Amino acid sequence: MSVETIQCGKRTYIVECRITKNGHKYLMITEKSFGRLSKVMVFHDHYELFRDALERVVQAEPIPGSAQPVLA
What we know:
CATH architecture: Roll
Oligomer: single chain
Order of helices and strands: EEEEH
Strand content: over 45%
């Protein structure tokens, strides 16, 4: 199992590569902040789509005044 921890002020992000009982790889992304945990699972067959979307969003101009996430 591979684990990366990113400390950002009062937030901690943990990115882990795990394997299911039936042998499928997935990423577990955990955010720890203000006593709460939020988790996202991304399965192996979605890695490329997830990475590409993340890259596009990081490079795009932010939406002015938007505090709420926009879900596609």
